[in-house]
Amino acid sequence: MDLILWRHAEAEEGSDDLARALTRRGQQQANRMAAWLRPRLPRDYVLLASEAKRSQQTAAFLSKGYGILPDFNPDRSAEEILKAISWPTPGKTIVLVGHQPWMGFMASRLMSGENQLWSIKKGAIWWLAHRQRHEIEQVRLKVMLTPSMLD
């Protein structure tokens, strides 16, 4: 399974967290990252976003065909999200557009087995690959890319 954690791009401030929209800069970040991702993804990838407007706007730059699940909202845990995507399902590629802190906890847990809050910048992707080799499960980091690296 390939799992791409894509943190939503830069968003406006606001008290209604789920209604916060992308800023102009955030739109540019999402557009550049989507353009980088598009030719590298398999045709049958699954794109999922939280109910937050900023996540859906970020996802829409990659494809209009994305699923919206409350399981990926900002208040969820890494464990809940791993369960929701049936980690690790062999042969699948899933792009999750979501939030800190669960993305940082998920990256930490999958890469190191530790439950630490790793920082994932707004608009960045962490592309993780799961495999089983010699009966040992492995997760490796294929790509970590921030929007500023695309400039």
Write the layout of secondary structure elements.
Elements: E1 2-7, H1 24-37, E2 46-49, H2 53-62, E3 67-68, H3 78-84, E4 93-98, H4 102-112, E5 125-133, E6 136-145
Parallel strand pairs: 1-4, 2-3, 2-4
Antiparallel strand pairs: 1-5, 5-6
Helix pairs in contact: 1-2, 3-4
Describe this structure in words.
The protein has one domain (2-150): Rossmann fold (3-Layer(aba) Sandwich), CATH 3.40.50.1240. Helix 1 packs across helix 2 and helix 3 packs across helix 4. Strands 3-2-4-1-5-6 form a 6-stranded mixed β-sheet, with helices on both faces. The chain has 4 helices and 6 strands. The model has no long low-confidence stretch (mean pLDDT 95). By secondary structure, the protein is α/β, with parallel strands linked by helices. The longest helix is centred in the N-terminal third of the chain and has 14 residues, at 24-37. Strand 2 (46-49), helix 2 and strand 3 form a beta-alpha-beta unit.
Radius of gyration from the CA trace? Answer: 14 Å
Q: Assign the structural class, choosing from mainly alpha, mainly beta, alpha/beta, alpha+beta, or little secondary structure.
A: alpha/beta
What is CATH's topology name? Answer: Rossmann fold
Q: What quaternary form is this?
A: single chain
Total helical segments? 4
Order of helices and strands: EHEHEHEHEE
Give the fraction of residues assigned to helices. Answer: 25-40%
Tally of discrete structural domains: 1
Low-confidence stretches: none
Q: What's the N-to-C terminus distance?
A: 29 Å
